[in-house]
Structures are given as C-alpha cells and as structure tokens.
Amino acid sequence: MDDLTFHDLRHTGQTLAAQTGATLADLMKRLGHSSMAAARRYLHAVDGRDREIAKALSELAAHGDVARLPRHITMRS
Q1: Which Gene Ontology molecular-function terms are recorded (predicted)?
Q2: How far is it, in rounded angstroms, from Cα 32 to Cα 10?
Q3: Would you tell me how many other CB atoms lie within 10 Å of the CB of residue 37?
Q4: This prediction's pTM
Q5: What is the DSSP string of 4-69?
Q6: Exposed, middle or buried: residue 22 (CB in 10 Å: 0-12, 13-18, 19+)?
Q7: 32-74: per-residue pLDDT in tens?
Q8: Of the candidates 71, 9, 11, 1, which has an alpha carbon nearest to the alpha carbon of residue 42?
C-alpha cells in the first residue's frame, strides 16, 4: 500500500460514482472539473452498458410505459 496516492483514491471514488449512475455533470461537479474531457476519464466504468440500454428501450417500446422500466434505468440521466 506504499504506492497508494491521494489521486488513486480520488480516481477510485469517481469511478465508483460513475458505476452507481453519476452523470458526466455529476462527476464534473464532484471534483470541480470545468471540462468534460477531464471528467470523461472516469466513465470507463460504465463502458458496455449498450446491452442494458437497448434492453430498456425495447421494454419501453413494447409496453409504452416508462413506469415499467427498472428503476436504475429511469434514475440515470
């Protein structure tokens, strides 16, 4: 653990925030970033959500009712 730095902890915190559904704007605000490029580096945690998003869109199209979508899909911006 001697190699652990404050930046490592900061990066881990932002990555976990992204995994729990934080938006790009949320990430920017949490660390005071003024550019999207700086905040985007934490979004690697949510790469691959295409399948989940496509499934949610299919559910919406099939049922026409956003209330029937899983809560974690409707809560994300």
Answers
A1: DNA binding
A2: 12
A3: 8
A4: 0.55
A5: --HHHHHHHHHHHHHHTT--HHHHHHHHT-SSHHHHHTTGGGGTTTHHHHHHHHHHHHHH--GGGS
A6: buried
A7: 888 888 888 777 767 777 677 677 778 777 776 666 656 655 4
A8: 11
